[in-house]
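Much of what follows relies on a compact textual record of a protein's fold. Think of the row as the fold of the chain written in a discrete alphabet. An example makes this concrete, so a full record is given next.


***
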Amino acid sequence: MRNTPSDPHVRTMLFPRHLETDHPADIIRWTVETYGIDRVVLTTSFSDAVLSHLAATAVPGIEVVLLDTQYLFAETEWYADQLVRRFGLNLRVVHPDPSVDRDDLWQTDPDACCRARKVEPLNRALAGKSAWITGVRRADSASRANARVASVDASRNVVKINPIVHWSDDEVELYQDLFDLPRHPLTDRGYPSIGCWPCTSPVRDGDDPRAGRWAGHAKTECGLHL
């Protein structure tokens, strides 16, 4: 019998210990075997090709979701298209509700903008799903330092799986080199963390990779992973 997030007995302690040391591809396979491929969704911002490649290798045909905020860099859209063709991704693009088409909230209230253009679309993408696979890593930021491989996102009633949560920046770089993965075209222009164009700036060498996100604001997260 599968554990599903709607089961009140599902707790982090019920996840098998081997997930903490398994290779990310094995974690993705375990997730699909446990919850069913039609009940699993993987989200990626396509800032790099690592999670997409892992998913395509581990479970061909797994649903991959891109949240198109309508403020994505043109380079990100191009890059996603390239990876879809190269890896044969089963990509689903989820858009914001049409009512926020021209709200320009990023100029006055970036938190509200993220809620409308990221959080609400994600919640729709996860409706009816049991497990959500993400690319969260502990090395991303201090707010993610305690992220687990597997946990329960009670607010969305899904199991959340972070298969590369342990990986350092060097390990991500090594994986990209080993498989000769294409790089996002903005990476070499000083954008180590890539989100929406109004709220993403290049950073200087040695700065926190996420320092260019919402620069000038206390904001450090869009709300997807809180």
